[in-house]
């Protein structure tokens, strides 16, 4: 009987030891559960959905605080350096990579009104956890972009919104028509950008500014990211927060970093998380 009990005890000890070491062997310290998030951007002009008209259109859909009517023939903006933060120290930083190969570009996005496939940003490989804030750069920073060939939405030859290597990219582009503008065909062109802060070396006013803007937005509720839960925050951008008080009779032709500075100060307030689908 004693031999049977001893053998049984040894067997139990061996079983638990095997399970313990088996669990240790199966644990991968580098294996972390991950998930995804779809960030949707929706552009408005005040309380109206943004609509793009053809160049030359006299259908003035919108008006600003000065009662000046206008329409839009092109609108969009660059987004980069996306980051998520959570209430318990969770952090996700979107991978960045600029390359001549469009397929290798990571972390750079361009939202173009009228091109619905650009409205959603798909974030992948997010560590599972809770998140309650999204932070992103509105624009394209100089760091990471070399003075050479870049592809995709950063490719000048393919229509990237690029000025030159001192001024950088146009981060936020507004084009349309307004009867308040006395330019040819009542043109309205407000190009907001710049990626270098270069003080003037003489008595002339400073020409080059870093007009990238960090936008930090709290979610309307804490969301959970996991292998089975893919939340989707819905961000609304209101153009009137940027040009609502602009006198379009005067400020209708903005094409330099220096001239764009007054508009840059309003950009962060134009974005808000309206709601989040969990």
TrEMBL record:
This is Copper-binding protein MbnP-like domain-containing protein. It comes from Belliella calami. Residues 35-255 form the Copper-binding protein MbnP-like domain. Residues 1-23 form the signal peptide. The keyword Signal applies. Pfam families: MbnP. Keywords: Signal.
């Amino acid at each position: 009987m004693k031999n049977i009990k001893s053998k049984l005890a040894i067997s139990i000890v061996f079983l638990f030891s095997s399970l313990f070491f088996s669990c240790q062997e199966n644990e991968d310290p580098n294996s972390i559960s991950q998930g995804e998030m779809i960030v949707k951007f929706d552009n408005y002009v005040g309380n109206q959905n943004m609509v793009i008209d053809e160049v030359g259109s006299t259908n003035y859909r919108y008006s600003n605080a000065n009662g000046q009517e206008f329409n839009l023939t092109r609108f969009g903006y660059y987004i980069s350096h996306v980051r998520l933060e959570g209430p318990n120290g969770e952090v996700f930083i979107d991978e960045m990579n600029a390359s001549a190969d469009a397929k290798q570009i990571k972390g750079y996005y361009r939202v173009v009104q009228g091109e619905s496939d650009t409205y959603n940003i798909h974030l992948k490989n997010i560590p599972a956890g809770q998140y309650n804030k999204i932070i992103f750069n509105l624009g394209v920073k100089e760091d990471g972009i070399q003075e050479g060939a870049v592809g995709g939405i950063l490719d000048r030859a393919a229509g990237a919104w690029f000025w030159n290597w001192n001024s950088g990219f146009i981060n936020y582009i507004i084009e349309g028509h307004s009867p308040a503008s006395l330019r040819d065909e009542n043109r309205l062109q407000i190009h907001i950008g710049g990626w270098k802060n270069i003080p003037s070396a003489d008595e002339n006013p400073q020409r080059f500014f870093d007009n990238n803007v960090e936008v930090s937005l709290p979610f309307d509720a804490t969301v959970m990211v996991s292998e089975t839960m893919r939340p989707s925050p819905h961000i609304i951008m209101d153009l009137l927060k940027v040009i609502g008080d602009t006198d379009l009779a005067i400020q209708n032709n903005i094409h330099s970093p220096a001239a764009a500075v007054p508009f840059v100060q309003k950009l962060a307030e134009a974005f808000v998380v309206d709601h989040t689908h969990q």
